[in-house]
Amino acid sequence: MLPRRVVLILVVLVAAVLGGRLALQRDDASPAGVRAEVTRVVDGDTIHVDLDGTDETVRYIGVDTPESVKPGTPVQCFAKKASAFNARLVEGEDVKLRFDVERRDRYGRLLAYVYRAGDGLFVNAELIRRGYARTLTVPPNVRFAERFARLQREAHEARRGLWRAC
Q1: What local confidence, expressed as pLDDT, does residue 75 receive?
Q2: 56 noted as active-site residue
Q3: What per-residue confidence (pLDDT) applies to 71?
Q4: What letter does residue 110 receive in the DSSP assignment?
Q5: With CB atoms counted within 10 Å of each terminal CB, which end of the chain scores lower, N or C?
Q6: Could you confirm whether 159 is annotated as catalytic?
Q7: Do 62 and 110 lie in a common domain?
Q8: One-character DSSP codes across 19-76
Q9: Distance in angstroms (rounded) separating the CA atoms of residues 73 and 35
Q10: Residue ranges making up the domain that contains 88
Q11: Are residues 46 and 2 in the same domain?
C-alpha cells in the first residue's frame, strides 16, 4: 500500500491534469474573449467588426479560403461560396474574438479565433470542417493547428466543399 502522502500527491496531480483538460474544453465551448459586432464580411476569412466603437479588420487565424477580392488575383475556385458561407455564419452577428501570440499581422489586421457569441460556434474550425477553407499555419499563432489539420484531412477525405469542386 502506498503511503498516505504519496496518494495525496497523486490525487492532486490527477485533479490538476483533469481540471486542465476540462478547463480547455469549457474554454473552447464558451470562449472568453473580446466581444464585437460583425459589420461586414470581406471574404471567406476576413471580416470587419465594431470593437468598442472602432472599425477593425479581423483576419481569421489558421484558415485560408480561396481568394475572391485580392487585387491583381483572379477569383479562385470556390471563393464566392466560401465568402457566402462565412456571411451566413457571422454577418450581423455578435462574435467573440480570441487572440493567440501575435495580435496583428503586417497589414495591421487583428488576427483572431472567431466564435459566434450566441451559440459559441468556432467559425475558423467550421470553415475547415465544411470544406470552405484550407489550413494556414503561421507561427507563432498555432494554438489550434493540430485540430485544424485533422479537420482538413477529414474534409478532404469526405470530399466536402472545395475538395470536391476544385
Answers
A1: 62
A2: no
A3: 74
A4: E
A5: N
A6: no
A7: yes
A8: HHHHHHHHHHHS---EEEEEEEE-SSSEEEEEETTEEEEEEETEEEPPPSS-TTSPPP
A9: 33
A10: 34-165
A11: no
Does the pLDDT of residue 121 top 50, yes or no?
Answer: yes
Give 151's DSSP letter.
H
Could you say which of 67, 93, 98, 134 is catalytic? 67
Q: What 3-state class would DSSP assign to 136?
A: strand
147 is catalytic: no
Which one is catalytic: 56, 98, 109, 126?
Answer: 109
Cα(158)–Cα(23) distance, rounded to whole angstroms? 31
C-beta neighbour count of 129 within 10 angstroms? 20
Whether 130 and 56 map to the same domain: the answer is yes
Sign of torsion, CA 17 18 21 26? negative
Q: Which of 56, 59, 98, 126 is catalytic?
A: 59
Residue listed under C-alpha cell 474554454: 27
Please report the pLDDT score of residue 31 as a whole number.
56
